[in-house]
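Please predict the structure of the following assembly.
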Amino acid sequence: MRIFLCILLPLLWSSSNAFGQLQSATLQATGLTCSMCSKATFKKLQAIEGVQKITPDLDNTSFVLQFSPNNTTPIASIQKQVEAAGFSVGKLVLNYKIPATTIANNTAVAFKGGQFIFIETASTKKEGIVQLQVVNKGFITDKEFKKLQALATKYPGYDKAAPNQYFVKLL
Amino acid sequence: MKYCLFWVLLLPLGAATQELFTLTDAASNLPAHSLSVRTMSMGMKRLDGNGTNWHHIPDVGWGISKKWMIRSSIFLANRGAQPLKMEGVGLYTKYRFLSVDDEHKHFRIAAFARLGTNNTPIHMQELEIMGHNTGWETGLVATQLVQKTAVNAAVSWERVTNNFNGNKFPGNAPRDGINYTLAWGRLMYPKKYTSFKQVNLNTMVELVGQYLPQTGEHFIDVLPTLQVIVNSQLKIDMAYRRQLTNSMFRTAPNGVMLKLEYTFFNIR
């Protein structure tokens, strides 16, 4: 089943650009304090496809990533590069520009290269810039994930998300 | 081991600390696909009064992946008034198998192993495969970082054998040793990080000990270090190594150290 999803889902997602365009992201890196560690993370983030500009906040070990227009940046590459620097993602908020869209809790929408599933989100109609916090394992701290794991009963698959399937909260 | 526990109890938790120590390699790794170029020089005053032994250890390190790194070294020394010559090579590898990260903190444990060669006569009871003996070492290192406080502890088993050039290890001397280190440090400047270009100043203290289980002999050294970090990429350590307690035959335990390290990120 998992193999089937791995093959089929990316095919479906790649043909669709229903949700909008990734504009920027705010990343909180965890496991570090020193400026050399922040620089290692900064350099790894610079290597992500589609990243145009990075503004670091060294004291808070956070980074604002600006992406090029029409980028197809894989969200997984953000986590991969932070971990390659030796650290972890503690929080990732994605800023998407979307056309008029109705967002409903526990529903999936396709985006370039993946699928968002909205959780703990009140149904609403949105247009313009929206902020989505990714709450998959590996995109929040281990402590937070342990707390949220119970949500798997409400949102099936939350504790074992398929590749490129992102559970998000609308902020 | 009782000394080890003693120092753990004394470690002053709560100070602002970095974990980039002079002798102790913390459980954290080099970033994946990054190259570290390093040189460590030590001027160790000889107890026999015949000048200073200068050791230079240039090395390169490579982050194979986020969890695994390797480092290779060359050991150069002058042994008092003799010309500087290459005495051996070293190979080091470390695998981080536990990493728990949180905001401004982490806990990590890594396993490491080291091989060292040397071609000079064996002249002391202390076992040291970083420039004196031929042998191997393997152990564990754990690092806890909380806010700007890091505590690092390592324990390893070291086994030496004959040196090259026919320089045999004395048959009746202990060949096995237990090494342990404890490290502590404090960020002095800046109080608040605002730019990669800020010069960072750290002070650190390391305790380095060895115990020979066969005979019960031991030593413990202390290394206060002043560390300067330039452009968040060049690390300069200036340290003084001083013997605190010792019951074995050592030839030059006290001296100064200078270590420079530059990291090239994203080589591929």
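The CA atoms of residues 138 and 168 of chain B lie 22 Å apart. Residues 2-264 of chain B form a domain with the Porin fold (CATH 2.40.160.40).
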